[in-house]
Every structure is written in structure tokens, then in C-alpha cells.
């Protein structure tokens, strides 16, 4: 032992008892490595995993905390079970039901739009304003983390959440270049209210946007004879509306597939207590959306149109590789 200490002064030298244990272990096992410790037995036995799988197949919306209580395992074990079983949490997403005639109308519009872009380039979307209105409720914050379904495959589930509270109406128009709005309203939108909104919109346009296009959905207040005559006075034939715009197609217009969801995920973070506070939040968040984001949204519009054509007018969002949610503001 003294020889070792003198030869290796900077190395910890094992004592006699340690060496004796190593010799005994080698004689017993043929190795000086530590024996594998049995440790605490796993609770996720094959039987327990089968039980968890059956529970989630019967109740795919069950939270992990409820699963852990139901199956008498810890929250961490519930997470591990989901991973072992290859179950994933999918967010519930609402889609409009498409009737067979809708699909043909979507194809007609998308082919027209594809030709429009192929002829003019994506930069032409600087002059195309996609418009829509939405209601923002004062207590309208919905925690999307609670709207999940556990499954081995995306179930594309639907979910409706009625809200009854103080609310403010918001109208916006989005181009590749800017967002015009918010324009607020407090009453149900009829032709008179809508024409007032459009008058405000026109007054907010830049000088070089006088020959822009307007897209709108087919709501009656948008497409009445009185309203259409009013719109043609400024836009002429540069209107994407009834006759060209397909019904039940919010997946093709940026206010629906991008803006409203983006805003509703942000404007309630500080829990506004009054409609004025909510309006201020909406205005602030819209002003924070920069041109880089709008360019990506415009690119996504084109991607969606092409995907809709590929799917013959049917739902296509599960095939859009990069969802706009991922490119909001990074």
C-alpha cells in the first residue's frame, strides 16, 4: 500500500477492504463491475398499460390528471404511459361542414385565384384585402390547453363553445402589405352598418391602393343589392364576393385562419375588465403584426388554394405542412 502511495501520490488508493470486496466479486461473477440493482419495480406493467390504453380509447378527452386518479398511477407515470402507447395530444379544431355543391364552388374559386397569382405574381396580394368581422366577448378567453384529445391518430374533432357576455364587434381587412383596422362596431351588422364600415376602410387606404380588390364572405349584409351597388362605386369589378367566393370557406381567408385566432390568444392575457380595455388590447396587438408576418400569411393563402385544388375542394388543412400558427411572430 505504501508503495502505491509513493508511486501514485495524486491518485486515491483503495484500502484493503475495498480490494478484498473486488476479489470476492470477481470470483463470484467473473467481473469487478457493480451488480445490477433491481430498484423499484415499475408500475407500468403490461397489464397496467393495457388498462390505460382502454381507458383512453373509451374517453379520449380525459386529462392526464384524471387518468392518473382513475388508474391509480402518478401524473408522471401517466405521461410515460402516453409516450409508451404512442398517444399524442391533439388540439380540437372547428371546421365548417362542406356540402357537395360547396366543393365545386371552392374548386372554381381556387382555380381562378391560382390563375390570378400565376398571371400577376404573389406581390399582387399587396392590393387584395381579405375582410371579415368577429365578436370579441369580454369573458371570451378560452384556454386551448384544456381542449385536447388523446389518440394515436389525429381525430379532427369539433368543439363548440357558446359565449354570453359583453362584447365588441371588430372588422379588419388584411393584405400582404398591411392590416386596415380594427374598425369597431357595437350593433348587429346590417347593410347600413356595413356600408359605414366600408366607408371608414376606404378613408384609411393609402393613395396607391385606390385600385385594390376587396374580398368578403356571402353574408346578406355584404351582398344585398344596396350594398353591392355601393361597393361597385369604389371597387368596380374588383370584388371577390357572392358568385365567386365559395360559401363555408373560412379556411381560405386570412382573418379566419389567422387573425381572429391569433388575437383571441393574446388580447385576454391581462384579463381586461372593460370593453375599452379589450378594444385597446385588440388595437395594440394588430399594430404589432409586422409586414414579415403578413408576407408569410399571403404565402399561406396561396398554399391553401393549391391544397384545396389537390383535395378537389374538400377540407385540406391537415395537408398544409406549415400551419400559420407556427409563423405568427417568432
TrEMBL record:
<dbReference type="InterPro" id="IPR009057">
    <property type="entry name" value="Homeodomain-like_sf"/>
</dbReference>
<dbReference type="InterPro" id="IPR036397">
    <property type="entry name" value="RNaseH_sf"/>
</dbReference>
<dbReference type="GO" id="GO:0005634">
    <property type="term" value="C:nucleus"/>
</dbReference>
<dbReference type="GO" id="GO:0003676">
    <property type="term" value="F:nucleic acid binding"/>
</dbReference>
<protein>
    <submittedName>
        <fullName>Transposable element Tc3 transposase</fullName>
    </submittedName>
</protein>
Amino acid at each position: 500500500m505504501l508503495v502505491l502511495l509513493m508511486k501514485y501520490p495524486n491518485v486515491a488508493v483503495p484500502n484493503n477492504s475495498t480490494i478484498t470486496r473486488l476479489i470476492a466479486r470477481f470470483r463470484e461473477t467473473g467481473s469487478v463491475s457493480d451488480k445490477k440493482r433491481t430498484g423499484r419495480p415499475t408500475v407500468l406493467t403490461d397489464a397496467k398499460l393495457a388498462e390505460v390504453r382502454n381507458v383512453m380509447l373509451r374517453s379520449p378527452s380525459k386529462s392526464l390528471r384524471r387518468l392518473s386518479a382513475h388508474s391509480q398511477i402518478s401524473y408522471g407515470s401517466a405521461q410515460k404511459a402516453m409516450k409508451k402507447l404512442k398517444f399524442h395530444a391533439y388540439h380540437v379544431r372547428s371546421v365548417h361542414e362542406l356540402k357537395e355543391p360547396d366543393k365545386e364552388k371552392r374548386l372554381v374559386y381556387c382555380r381562378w385565384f391560382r390563375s390570378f397569382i400565376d398571371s400577376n405574381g404573389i406581390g399582387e396580394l399587396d392590393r387584395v384585402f381579405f375582410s371579415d368581422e368577429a365578436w370579441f366577448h369580454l369573458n371570451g378567453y378560452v384556454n386551448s390547453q384544456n381542449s385536447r384529445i388523446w389518440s394515436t391518430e389525429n381525430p379532427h374533432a369539433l368543439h363548440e363553445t357558446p359565449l354570453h357576455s359583453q362584447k365588441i364587434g371588430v372588422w379588419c381587412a388584411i393584405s400582404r402589405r398591411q392590416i386596415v383596422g380594427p374598425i369597431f362596431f357595437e350593433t348587429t351588422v346590417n347593410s347600413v352598418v356595413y356600408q359605414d364600415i366600408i366607408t371608414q376602410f376606404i378613408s384609411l387606404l393609402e393613395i396607391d391602393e385606390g385600385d385594390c380588390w376587396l374580398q368578403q364572405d356571402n353574408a346578406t349584409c355584404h351582398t344585398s343589392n344596396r350594398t353591392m351597388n355601393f361597393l361597385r362605386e369604389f371597387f368596380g369589378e374588383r370584388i371577390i364576393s357572392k358568385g365567386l367566393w365559395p360559401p363555408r370557406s373560412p379556411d381560405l381567408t386570412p382573418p379566419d385562419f389567422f387573425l381572429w385566432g391569433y388575437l383571441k390568444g393574446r388580447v385576454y392575457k391581462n384579463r381586461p375588465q372593460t370593453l375599452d380595455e379589450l378594444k385597446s388590447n385588440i388595437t395594440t396587438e394588430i399594430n404589432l403584426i409586422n409586414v414579415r408576418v403578413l408576407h408569410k400569411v399571403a404565402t399561406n393563402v396561396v398554399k391553401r388554394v393549391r391544397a384545396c385544388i389537390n383535395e378537389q375542394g374538400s377540407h385540406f388543412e391537415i395537408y398544409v405542412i406549415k400551419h400559420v400558427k407556427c409563423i405568427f411572430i417568432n
